[in-house]
Design brief:
about 130 residues; alpha+beta; three-stranded antiparallel beta sheet; 3 strands; globular; binds FE2/S2 (inorganic) cluster
């Protein structure tokens, strides 16, 4: 069995929502100190709904695939729903990741959370109220 699912390979080779957003409503970054990979998520939010999302990931293929999938999963959702995105959900949507690559999907969860937190701070909202 190949190490990586077809979905991982597809999102790695053709990442969705790659790039940044100028004047984003929320920007979040997450990194892993062990591998040194960094993921950044940009959100455009209109009336509590994520109308656009982009990512920049300086990291491994699994981190790129995880960011790409995570952006697809939160686009069009409310910021409250985006906070519910777990690394498990991202991994499942990718049809799995090898055990030693699970932390790559954790970066996606953490970067989304950080972006929503930043959105709240910039817009005078209480992050904890959204949870
Ligand atoms: Fe660390 Fe993938 S190896 S994020």
């Amino acid at each position: 069995m190949p190490l990586y699912s077809e979905k991982v390979m597809d999102h790695f080779r053709n990442p969705r929502n790659l790039g940044s957003i100028e004047n984003a409503d929320g920007v979040g970054e997450a990194g892993n100190a062990v591998c040194g990979d960094i993921m950044k998520i940009y959100l455009k939010v209109d009336d509590g709904i994520i109308t656009d999302v982009k990512f920049e990931t300086f990291g491994c293929g699994s981190a790129i695939a995880s960011s790409s999938m995570a952006t697809e999963m939160i686009k069009g959702k409310s910021v409250k729903d985006a906070l519910k995105l777990s690394n498990k959900a991202v991994t499942e949507a990718l049809d799995g990741l090898p055990a030693h690559k699970l932390h790559c999907s954790v970066l996606a969860e953490e970067a989304v959370q950080a972006a929503v937190r930043d959105y709240c701070e910039k817009h005078g909202l209480n992050f904890e109220d959204l949870k």
